[in-house]
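Contributing new records

If you add data, match the layout below exactly. Sequence lines come first and carry their own label; structure lines follow with theirs. Keep one chain per record. Anything else will be rejected by the validation script.
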Amino acid sequence: MALFPVFLLTCAAAGMAGVFFRPGTWYRDLDKPAWTPPNRLFPVIWAVLYVLIALAAARIAEVPDNDLALGLWGLQITINTLWSGVFFGLHRMLAGALIIAALWVTVLATTVAFWSLDMIAALMMVPYLIWGTYALALNTSVWLRNRGRVAAAE
């Protein structure tokens, strides 16, 4: 677990995209489904997820033959970092949904790769996969409800 701080800092760097690209009035004014969580829950959910996925990666870092699993972990955290800038920064809802779809696939692949090395690490990824499923549905719903909306500059 010696590498946990490195993985946690990597997750924190990804999370900083959410600090730089905030929801703002554009997002507030979108038509969203009733099952959209309050904005204040997102940082809490992401903090928990980032700790779990950092712990999972730290466990995998200690097992042999982890190259593929850690490579997939790096790919998913890179894709994760893109979403806030595309969705909140550029106001590209469809592109955001496509990014989350790609993220979901890489999180699933990472989880499967982790499973082959450490079941506990794989189980730590499951909440992230569940949240990714929900986030994809939410992003897609927001896009479908607001397709005709022109992206307004803030």
